[in-house]
Amino acid sequence: MDYFYNFIAPLSSGLFGRMKYFLLSALLCNIFLSNSCKKYEAAPAAFFISPGAVSVAPTGTAQGTASNKITDLFLYVDGKFQGAYQTIHTMPIVTRDKEVRIDIFAGIKNNGIKGTTISWIFYDKIEFDTLVETAKTITRPITFKYNPNVTFAWLENFEGNGYSIVKSGVNGGDDSAHIKYAATSDIFEGSKSIELNLSSPLASAGIFESSIAYFLPKGNSNVYLELNYKCDVEFEVGLTDGTTRKSALTINPSFGWNKIYISLADVVNRTPAPDQQKVYFKFIKTNDNPNPHVWLDNIKLIYI
After folding, report:
1. Cα separation, 139 vs 274, whole angstroms
2. CA 119 to chain centre
3. Left if phi > 0, otherwise alpha if psi is -120 to 50, otherwise beta: which for 112?
4. Distance of CA 149 to CAs 59, 123, 143, 144, Å?
5. Which of 29, 55, 260, 284 has the highest Cβ tally under 10 A?
């Protein structure tokens, strides 16, 4: 204040000084009012989208079932990313009183790990143009379809006769490892799921693998295994060339059915890296669980 007074005081002496003082005061007042108006400027107009049921609609049997675990929705408005919202949350759309283009991408937990949500490019985005009255909330079901560029290398939902998983004879697989159709109470969906178990007191590990090897592209970050599972023991998932196993992920016990999206990009390229590789599943007997079980359904080995 002393500095301000010392600056103004000389200007206030005499008529001319008083005019300068008045003009300077008016200027400072205008600057203050202008800044105040900017500070309290009204927020842009917005409406809200409340996601209804979030689902996946496969195109024919060649894409398997509709099972999914979409946890988030990635929202773009007029091509600009606005945020990622859990599927249970309402999404605000800033309109500025004009029609807007809305793009919504599915989000999943990469490798089932909390805090690793990614946009799932294997599903096509949902896009639409709309103009909704400000402050209104619309409820819209969200149904994704698979991207037409997705390759389904291996698809197994166990609904046919026989299944494309076998016991491995490599490094620990033995006759005490069993594979069979699950009991009715353990079926995930449809009429069949598969049960893997290890019953012999002499065996230490159960190792199972796809019955054939599949071509998987190298240098591609978008190679995944979709899987429904439940298990009373942790189990390992990875790729094998028939001799060497390369682990991709160890899955924790889940006593209810769960869904996971497993990234295989790293193990596809890890040495040895033949052109074709099998998917394997491995679990180990423990003292606390001498007869472990793993149940599987809806296996999708995919890349884009």
Report:
1. 49
2. 6
3. left
4. 13, 10, 18, 14
5. 260
What single DSSP character describes residue 110? Answer: B
Give 30-76 pLDDT, tens digit per residue.
544 445 444 444 455 688 999 999 999 999 899 999 999 999 999 99
Cα(157)–Cα(192) distance, rounded to whole angstroms?
8
Tokens read off for 182: 């699950």
Distance of alpha carbon 65 from alpha carbon 189, whole angstroms: 9
Tokens found for residue 239: 């790729």
SS3 call for 115? coil
Under the banding of pLDDT at 50, 70 and 90, the label for residue 134 is confident
Place of tokens 């291996």: 154
Bond from prior residue into 290 cis (ω within 30 degrees of 0): no
The mean-pLDDT minimum among 55-64, 97-106, 179-188 falls in: 97-106
Q: 117: which 2 tokens?
A: 């949500």
210 forms beta bridges with 165
Beta-carbon contacts of residue 3 (< 8 Å; ≥ 6 apart)? none
**pLDDT value at position 14?**
52
The token pair that represents 137 in the structure block: 């909330």
- The amino acid that residue 58 corresponds to is P
Residue with tokens 């390369």: 246
- SS3 assignment, position 93: strand
- Kindly list the distances between the CA atom of residue 249 and the CA atoms of 101, 199, 239, in Å, as whole numbers in the listed order: 39, 24, 10
229-248 residue pLDDT tens? 999 999 999 999 999 999 99
